[in-house]
Amino acid sequence: MVGFRAGDVPPTATVKFIGAGTAACIADLFTFPLDTAKVRLQIQGETKSPVNTGHGPVKYRGVFGTISTMVRVEGPRSLYSGLVAGLQRQMSFASVRIGLYDSVKQFYTKGSDHVGIGSRLMAGCTTGAMAVAVAQPTDVVKVRFQAQISAGANKRYHGTMDAYRTIAKEEGFRGLWKGTGPNITRNAIVNCTELVTYDLLKDALLKSSLMTDDLPCHFTSAFGAGFCTTVIASPVDVVKTRYMNSAPGQYSSALNCAVAMLTKEGPKAFYKGSALFTHYSFTVVI
Q: How far is CA 171 from CA 11, 131, 175, 222, 249, in A?
């Protein structure tokens, strides 16, 4: 009699949803301070950024400089400002994106055993767009908390539920989905760039006999894919963050936000926090 093996039975949709969301939340607990530092760097330089309302200008320099400044000025808890919304975002985003990926991939391949890179890209972009649509309100609240100076009394929001209520009251329910367009665009660019560049770099390394198909090869390919993804997707990521964090009427659209950044701060503004974005892209690929 053959013994039962867990691998013989594919996981149910419920298991995929819960497993993906839980794993993403655990990972977020460790990387959240880096994400907060990225947001602070990305919004730095805005003349009307709500992050500095009621406070003097705070200058952040680099990844560790940003983290140390936040700890000194606002305390260690500031690094986890918006964590509740962040975990809500990870649970909803990862659950939809990963939980539905296999089903959507099968839809594009029409049941075929051969899964090409085109089908993978389409499935990744589709589930990514669906995940953004579901998780966008949590992402908006997360970003606004991360951008908010924790020290002092002039806070935009005083709790996660207060943030949802305040945004819906002041900006309408559409305000909770602010920045959905650039967020979907960013997600599509990241998915496509990571998968394509990772495969191309790994194939190039193997065909040139520079490396064998082992951990160093995958590590090198992942690092290169993360760098390429940053170069291409970082501008959209910065625009997404600024537009989501903006006060009502500050920008008429995401495109207006991008134009304002270019005219007032120059091209370099689109790569603020790019070192941290490289870290996230690199982590996702491996």
A: 41, 22, 5, 40, 10
| Cα dist from 242 to 48, 195, 227, whole Å | 11, 27, 22
Please, which residues have CB within 8 angstroms of residue 142's CB and are 6 or more apart in sequence? 82, 85, 86, 89
The candidate with the shortest Cα–Cα distance to 243, out of 160, 174, 182, 202, is: 182
In angstroms, the CA 105 to CA 117 distance is 11
Alpha carbons 48 and 267: distance in angstroms, whole number: 19
Residue 162 belongs to what H/E stretch? helix 160-171
pLDDT tens for the chain, 286 residues long, are 444 455 556 677 677 778 888 888 998 899 999 999 999 999 988 755 444 443 445 688 888 899 999 999 999 999 999 999 999 999 999 888 888 888 888 888 887 777 778 888 888 899 999 999 999 999 999 999 999 887 656 678 889 999 999 999 999 999 999 999 999 999 898 888 887 888 888 888 888 888 888 888 888 888 888 888 888 889 999 999 999 999 898 999 999 999 999 999 999 999 888 765 555 555 554 4
Polymer length in residues for the chain: 286
Hey, what's the torsion of the CAs at 19, 95, 285, 81, to 10 degrees? -100
Rounded distance, CA 229 to CA 250, Å?
A: 29
The terminus-to-terminus CA distance of the chain in angstroms comes to 39
CA 213 vs CA 63, 190, 206, 217: distances in Å: 33, 24, 7, 6
